[in-house]
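Provenance and format

Records in this collection were gathered into a single text stream. Each protein contributes a sequence line and a token line. The two records reproduced below are adjacent in the stream.
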Amino acid sequence: MNKFITLSLAALAMSACATTPVPSGDWTLAEIDGQAQAATVMQSLTFDSANQRVSGTGGCNRFMGGYTMEGATVTFGGLATTRKACLDRDVTNAEAKYLGILSENSFELTTVAGQLILTSASNRLVFNQ
């Protein structure tokens, strides 16, 4: 019996250290901090786990960069954006907020019922696939 408990605890400890799988596919931002995103603002996120790269749209511009995963924590680094002029101030503001949040935080990454959720100490982003 002790051998079974020891093996079970060892398996549990090893699974706790495992890296959370990075969700594949394109994800569309649905809400920031509980506030639904306007349907007119298309913001997205796509992971390329083979190359540890991330890309997406902020509203007007595309962004791309790297990321690191440690356990269930994802950190985005060195995000670069295109520099198209955006004529809609609401879209410009939404893009600045979204890209600012991605650039300044590490997130706990979870997937639940077709949603990707990124939670930091100060923000929560919810994406739909």
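Adjacent record:
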Amino acid sequence: MSNNGAHLGFEQKLWKAADKLRSNMDAAEYKHVVLGSIFLKYISDSFEERHEQLQEQVSEWADPEERDEYSMENIFWVPGKARWSYLQKNAKQPEIGKIILT
């Protein structure tokens, strides 16, 4: 993963979201939500980077939707509706809780 500063501000958004969660739930519940979200963001970043590489290699028989293309690089396969980008697109939807749980 590249760390070129493109994600500056992410920490601030994460902190604001954490403040909202802290006011609405017990710390025992909160840790599961936060740690799960951080883990999903981490594996999604790795997945997206590999996905972009594979899209550039499509003409070379690489398939960006093939699980094995990720596992052979020790990267988690992330299904379409579990990808961070999908969740971001749907974050303002009233059914976001259901989207996350499925």
